[in-house]
Amino acid sequence: MPGQNFLFVPGPTNVPARVLRSMMVPMEDHRSPKFPDLTREVLAGLKTVFKTEKGTPIVFPSSGTGCWEAALTNCLNPGDKVLASRFGQFSHLWVDMCQRLGFDVEIIEVEWGEGAPADRYRAALEADTQHKIKAVLVCQNETATGVTSDVAAIRAAMNLAGHPALLFVDSVSALASIDFRMDEWAVDVCVSGSQKGLMLPAGLGVTCVSEKALEAACQSKHPRCYFDYQDMIKNNVNGYFPYTPSLPMLYGLKESLTVIAEEGLENIFVRHHYLAGGVRAAVQEGWGLKLCARAPQWYSDTVSAIVVPEGFNAAHVIDRAFKRYNLSLGAGLSKVAGKVFRIGHLGDLNELMLMGAIAGAEMAMLDVGIQIEPGSGVAAASQFWRNQKVAPQVAAA
């Protein structure tokens, strides 16, 4: 069928046309006298997105996974103990990386569909009277289950426990879409990537590091090379990189940061909450289905994981949506494989774009035999959006 593919996985997300155009650049000398202007503009723009004055943004040619590894190998020593909760595939993979790199991981096991439990973090930290735990890990937004955790509550738990551990936050599917506050929450390392809220192709690992984390990095004896913070910082201070950067991606990041600044971060957060509300209305009020997220406090504004009725395989919905309607939906992963499909609703999108995803998912479910009322999800989302306030600039348009 002619027409574009409807991309509604929770990353990579749709790239705005102006960002794509900005990436169509000839190659240039990344050691030239003018190149530092690009580097400095990008790093300054990232500080705004991270909401930091004290933190140091670093951009690696990698994915967010590379920034996971950078946080661990720069700030910790071999065999150090870390505290992490596991409540979805990506929090699980970060734990897996810790174990494979030889760290001692204390795992807080959480039901998939819930978020990071601040009270259990506090209890674990209070029990660690010898302060063997050197880092606390938390995923702000668990992409696999559509669950958002309260990072501020985790920081409060650390403070109440009087524990000096570093705080590492995975904000891959939250940054620039859901509020993140590096300085206010005293986050030591934030990990993200280019292909989600930053509205770029995959290819850049985007991270931000606190002064405390950089001090720890100076003391760390853990082997590292490609992901060494100090190599990056020593070169970035002069506007360069320790190895060849991706020029098109940097120009794209420059433009995406301009797009974000024009809309305004707070407006972006409001827009994502508003759009997510329409999806949730379609799922719960229209289709009569459940979200994987077990309570409103966990609902993600960037991705919804929809539980299919007993006896149905969500993979069949995804397959039908792609082959018949040219719609890409996110698959269920690991424990929720076959049980959920995911609609990503982050980055460059509006109501009518999302309506296409809802309509396509609805038709695919009907085609595989799931008993929902035709048009019910579209109607519920329409009703929600038509009766809700939106971001200020949209309301004024």
Secondary structure elements and their pairing?
Blueprint: E1 6-8, H1 17-22, H2 35-50, E2 56-60, H3 64-75, E3 81-86, H4 89-100, E4 104-109, H5 118-127, E5 133-139, E6 141-142, E7 147-148, H6 151-161, E8 166-170, E9 189-193, E10 205-209, H7 211-219, H8 229-236, H9 247-263, H10 265-286, E11 290-291, E12 303-307, H11 314-325, E13 327-331, E14 340-344, H12 351-367, H13 376-386, H14 392-396
Parallel strand pairs: 1-13, 3-4, 3-5, 5-8, 8-9
Antiparallel strand pairs: 2-10, 6-7, 9-10, 11-12, 12-14, 13-14
Helix pairs in contact: 2-9, 5-6, 10-13, 11-12, 12-13
Could you walk me through the main structural features you see in this protein, from its secondary elements to its overall organization?
This protein is an alpha/beta fold and 397 residues long. The protein has two domains: 18-262, Aspartate Aminotransferase, domain 2 (3-Layer(aba) Sandwich), CATH 3.40.640.10; 264-396, Aspartate Aminotransferase, domain 1 (Alpha-Beta Complex), CATH 3.90.1150.10. It is 42% helix and 16% strand. It has 14 helices and 14 strands. The protein has a seven-stranded mixed β-sheet, with helices on both faces. The protein has a five-stranded mixed β-sheet with strand order 1-13-14-12-11, with helices on both faces. A two-stranded antiparallel ribbon has the order 6-7. A hairpin with a 4-residue loop joins β6 (141-142) and β7. α5 packs parallel to α6 (151-161), α11 crosses α12 (351-367) and α12 (351-367) runs antiparallel to α13 (376-386). The mean pLDDT is 96.
